[in-house]
Amino acid sequence: MASKVSVKETLIMSIRTLKSNKLRSLLTMLGIVIGNASVITLVGVGKGAQNLASNQLSNLGANVLFIVPGNNDTRRRGVAFPKNLVLKDAEAIKEQVPSVKRVAPQISSSEVVQYKSKSFSSSILGITPNFLQVRSFDIANGRFITKEDLKSARNVAVIGSDLNKDLFMRNQAIGKKLRIKDQSFEIIGIMEPKGAVFGNNQDKNVYIPLNTMVNRISGKDPTYGISLSFISIEALNEQSINKAKFQITNLLRQRHKITKDDDFAVRSQKDALNIVSNITGGLTLMLAAIGGISLIVGGIGIMNIMLVSVSERTEEIGLRKALGARSSDILIQFLIESLILSILGGLIGTLVGVSSVGAVALITPLPAQIGAKVIMLTVSLSGSIGLVFGVLPARRAARLDPIVALRSL
Question: Do residues 108 and 257 share a domain?
Fold first, then answer.
């Protein structure tokens, strides 16, 4: 009569069996270790990319809208932006849109900045005094551009913190002269570090009065006059953002005499964040899927090794059945062996993956991170894979005829 084998006894036998084949067990677990580590690392990196983008967007300023020339179609086709967003548009928005608090028109150009024998390529931004408040920038040393600087088109400049280090090292930059094109500019201020936005390091920018930019650097457009790169708008508060967006769109459509497609786009920080979140979310999902494939490959490895183990342990299975072990006991033992391999491999892979995410966050600018839910889900998934891929070998072992198995003794 078949005697019932306790789960504890089965577990002890499974552990002994795995210990007796340490190298094989380690190689079997390797696939799960790599799969688990891949999932956690790739998801952590994807989450880090999402965090980095969110942090950069938060640097754009609070309650801010951005008006850029060109519509979505021109951006998709890579067509050069039209020059129909002009200074008078910015002035009209300030005067006629009640939900707007401040307006900061801007002209951008890439130029070589020189100080003595040193030269660097930098973004030159022609701005107005409102830029500081609208974009939530701060001054570290000196002062910012004033209304008098703007009105008189003075050759003064405020530089970013990184550019200050590149040009002057530890020397005092205030009062020094730097050259942009053939013009000399006096440095009146240094910005607090702000960081990068979409790959553009804002700490290497040079800020000069808008009128100076037009008169000395960019010039006027013969058709449109003072063409702007874009306009930054600060709404009265967070609740006014949608209202301001609607009012600005209607005003510019009237000013530009638009009857069909807009020749401009109004974007909020939230719009940009949603776009970036969708992109990075899709990237994270794709990376998780790639890691998941590694887990499945690890599961197939477990199944292959367990099938080989069944073939090698035919005599053992036959002997146990002859001594009274039931098919269910054999089935449970092989499933437990698969579970032990997959769960242990999952835990080791989790440790490796979490360490990799920490290393990425420590060594690179990417704020990679991984949540407890993802870790628990990954470990559970690796255990499930061991169970699923261990079923076939376990069933094959359980179905062995003890008489046939004992003939090989």
Answer: yes
The encoded tokens of residue 121 equal 């390529």
- Model confidence at 195: pLDDT above 90: no
Rounded CA separation 341/346 (Å): 8
**Contact by Cβ (8 Å): 299, 386:** yes
Helix or strand holding residue 188 (H, E): strand 183-191
155 in any annotated domain: yes
Which tokens is 6 given?
């306790």
Residue 252 and residue 158 share a domain: yes
Q: Tell me: the pLDDT tens digits for 10-33?
A: 777 777 777 777 787 787 788 888
User: What angle, rounded to 10 degrees, do the helices at 327-363 and 314-322 form?
Assistant: 140
Tokens of 185: 């500019």
Quickly list DSSP for 50-102: HHHHHHHHHTT-TTEEEEEES-HHHHHHTPPPPS--BHHHHHHHHHH-TTEEE
- Indicate whether 110 and 242 sit together in one domain: yes
Residue 136's Cα: distance from chain center in Å? 23
pLDDT for residue 2: 46
Residue environment code for 171-180, b if the CB has 16+ CB neighbours within 10 A, otherwise e: eebeebebeb
CA dist., res. 51 & res. 195, Å (int): 14
Are residues 89 and 182 part of one domain? yes
User: What is the rounded distance in angstroms from the CA atom of residue 380 to the CA atom of residue 134?
Assistant: 48
Range of the domain at 362: 7-55+275-406
Provide the domain count of the chain: 2
Task: Compute the average pLDDT of residues 152-161.
Answer: 95
Tell me the Ramachandran region of residue 6: left when phi exceeds 0, alpha when psi lies from -120 to 50, beta otherwise: beta
Is the same domain home to 152 and 258? yes
Q: State the CB neighbour count (10 A cutoff) for residue 206.
A: 23
Alpha-carbon gap, residue 408 to 327, rounded angstroms: 19
